[in-house]
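Collaborator request, handled under Task 6.
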Amino acid sequence: MKNDITQIEKLLQDKNQLAIALVAPSFVTDFKYPSLIYRLKKLGFDKVTEVTFGAKMINRDYHKILKTSKGLMISSPCPGIVTTITNKFPKLKSKLIKVDSPVVAMAKICKKHFPNHKTIFISPCDFKKVETESCKTLDHIIDYDQLKLLFQKNKIGRPIFKRKSDWLFDKFYNDYTKIYPLSGGLAQTAHLKGTLKEDEVAVIDGINKVIKFLENPDPKIKFLDCLFCDGGCIGGPHTSKKLTIPQKYNKVIRYLKKSKKQDIPEDRKGLINIAKGLKFTK
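Structure tokens returned to the collaborator:
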């Protein structure tokens, strides 16, 4: 199982096995930035990256597909949405855009550049555990609650920063797609202006509202950007129960603003040619 915590812990303790953490940008609901990077490396990860560059790359495919598509098309990064449509609305399955999710795209990129590293996704969501079971380039997945337990067990608390590398993500840096875990994050970052009109895009979060729309779709809508959880991924079952959705939303926005001010070395940026030769459409 990719979600076997005992196996993951042994892997991180094995000095002969390198591992890279793939972090969802919703992490700021539960962990502080940039201390999470340091803590993950103390736990045993050789490298820590964010899945935002994967989001940037799939946005390019979304843009191309939506530019030529006719009729309703539905976003597919959320496995909860994909599962719901497959089970409850099989006739709409063909409307799901056949593009990888950000984490699957990111796992492909990491395996290309770090073929000897095990890839481990850190997720706010249980549906991702199901999705990644069939992903050959993603080796393991743990959720935020499980990660907190690992930190506690290994007594990894407040960090002491000694080098700049302690608080910088390793390679593939991208800032604007950090809003991906928010409702409408995909539609906002896929550069759809000039491709679709505003009233042709519907943004819906929360599965009950999504189902209500799918039962009687608005014929005007050409793109449905939807997520299973209320508020988007920041409302995932393994995100903080102490914070409201607006509070989590504000954390992501503050994180984005802080990130834009950072001076990121050129060799850590997510440049498009990094993904050359990789395919993210299904």
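The cover message to the collaborator said: "The chain has one domain: 5-267. Residues 5-267 form one domain. Please let us know whether this matches your experimental observations."
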